[in-house]
Design goal:
Blueprint lengths: L6 E4 L9 H17 L2 E6 L9 H14 L8 E2 L4 H13 L3 E4 L3 H14 L21 E4 L6 E6 L3 E6 L7 E3 L7 H11 L4 E5 L3 H14 L5 E5 L2 E2 L15 H6 L4 H9 L13 H7 L10 E2 L2 H14 L2 H14 L8 H12 L6 H12 L8 H6 L2 H15 L6 H15 L7 H9 L7 H8 L1 H12 L4
Parallel strand pairs: 1-2, 2-3, 9-10, 11-12
Antiparallel strand pairs: 4-5, 5-8, 6-7
Bound molecules: glutamic acid.
Glutamic acid (GLU) binds next to loops.
């Protein structure tokens, strides 16, 4: 193996979505580049001109940016490099490693049928033809692949994978319309980008054999291959729509944090012992391609939720508040000035049990409502004369509290219950409804601390002033 500085890349085609498998491939490339002090690059494989709209390309940029894995160099666009691809095809011809194939579509069809019947791959009669015999009509250019022996893909995940050359036809490099083919473009681009390690899904393993032959024909150094097992659904079947979200943007929309997804995806096909939760820094320190497993990895929503809960509990409340504000605005919730700050202050009280930022948004809504709150009928029913009288006394007690904090309020509420000769259960539920308008809220002390003294007392006053 050479000692070139490590350069990895992700080479997505703009399809309009960034698949979770692509995100995992990006992550492994990114981790390996960071682990080795190398570079992580992006190439946009935009040769399908119909699908490669600006919007579809933007989805890739947005996906990588959200994941926190941006390219270390400006992205390379494959379509723009078509001239360079043609140049290499010409060079392969000059080297005698490629040839012009003048078979017409009809002739090719006949050869295909014959090859199928004889159980062999397609062979062109133009391989080795004398240029003097070249007709004046469009031609494709094919790679002059070795006919015998094996091509070995030395894969860092799968080990040596052998392909019999007799089973590989002479790959078309340039179509008769002058367009370079996919495998050729990938090799030229990876070579020109000085990519040292090609880490990608194992659906490209067969391409690696083809690509190896092109590298060899050009006398270019073959990169280290690492083909990752695909991601399967929880049931072990290939990941598909019925398993739920597949696009990175969907995970974002469902309220997962990028660091949760990074930690989660790192565990899909790689791991460090039994460690479930680890930081980016740890993953970077530990990651090595040789530790990637070759068996397919299964999505596990419970694990992802567990990780997301962990990272939500760790995250800066100000950052979470901005995410929650966006979610609420998306629900046409009108946020007033200062609400985001309010949300940030509230988050430590409500985040322990939440699995997603959507749940976090649900959990803060009670604090954002404007007075007087509309109380659900169940809460109104609980406001009996007895309860009103008790809440009136409690309100007086609360107004005396000097330490308006969770511990301070816990002490005050307990002392009030004792003085009033009842358990907290006797007034806890109605007080909570009065404070929250029936929305999910933390326990009493947490709710009142989050709301603050004036708002808490005001909400109690509003309820007490309702006609009995
Ligand atoms: N464009 C290919 C894909 O989206 C990736 C090719 C590669 O990584 O070599 O599957």
């Amino acid at each position: 193996m050479s000692d070139r500085p490590v350069r990895t890349r992700i080479a997505p085609s703009p399809t309009g979505m960034m698949h979770i498998g692509t995100a995992r491939t990006a992550l492994f490339n990114w981790l390996f580049a960071r682990h080795t002090g190398g570079k992580f690059l992006l190439r946009v494989e935009d040769t399908d001109r119909e699908r490669s709209t600006d919007a579809a390309v933007q989805v890739i940029f947005d996906g990588l940016s959200w994941l926190g894995m941006e390219s270390d160099e400006p992205p390379v666009f494959q379509f723009a490099r078509a001239d360079r691809h043609r140049e290499v095809v010409a060079e392969l011809e000059t080297r005698g490693q490629a040839y012009r194939d003048y078979m017409t579509a009809e002739e090719l069809e006949v050869e295909r049928e014959r090859a199928r019947a004889e159980g062999r791959v397609v062979r062109s009669p133009w391989r080795g033809a004398d240029p003097a015999t070249w007709p004046d009509r469009p031609y494709a250019v094919r790679l002059k692949s070795p006919l015998d022996g094996d091509t070995v893909v030395a894969d860092a995940v799968k080990g040596d994978v052998r392909f019999q050359n007799s089973g590989l036809d002479d790959l078309i490099l340039l179509r008769s319309d002058g367009n370079p083919t996919y495998n050729l473009a990938v090799v030229v681009d990876d070579h020109d980008m000085a990519i040292t390690h090609v880490i990608r899904g194992d659906d490209h393993l067969n391409n690696a054999a083809r690509q190896t032959i092109i590298y060899q024909a050009m006398d270019w150094e073959v990169p280290v291959w690492a083909h990752l097992p695909l991601i399967h659904g929880p049931d072990g079947a290939k990941l598909s729509k019925r398993h739920g979200a597949q696009a990175v943007s969907e995970f974002d929309g469902m309220g997962y944090l990028p660091e949760s997804l990074r930690n989660y995806l790192a565990k899909l096909g790689w791991g460090h012992g039994d460690d479930e939760i680890f930081s980016d820094a740890q993953a970077i320190e530990w990651f090595d391609i040789k530790d990637v497993v070759s068996a397919a990895a299964r999505l596990d929503w419970a694990k992802l939720n567990h990780l997301n809960n962990h990272y939500i509990r760790e995250a800066d409340p100000v950052r979470l508040a901005a995410l929650v504000a966006t979610i609420l605005k998306g629900r046409d919730f009108h946020l007033r000035q200062g609400d985001e700050t309010l949300i940030a202050g509230l988050i430590p009280f409500v985040r322990d049990g939440v699995k997603t930022t959507l749940e976090l948004a649900d959990a803060v809504i009670f604090s954002l409502k404007s007075r007087p709150l509309e109380l659900p009928s169940k809460a109104l029913e609980q406001l009996t004369d007895e309860t009103r009288a008790r809440l009136t006394r409690l309100r007086l007690a609360l107004a005396q509290v000097t330490d308006w904090s969770v511990p301070g309020l816990e002490v005050a509420v307990r002392a009030f219950a004792e003085a009033d000769g009842v358990g907290i259960g006797k007034f806890g539920a109605p007080l909570r409804s009065v404070l929250s308008g029936g929305s999910p809220a933390p326990d009493l002390a947490g709710t009142m601390t989050a709301l603050g003294r004036d708002e808490s007392l005001g909400r109690i006053d509003d309820a007490l002033s309702l006609p009995a």
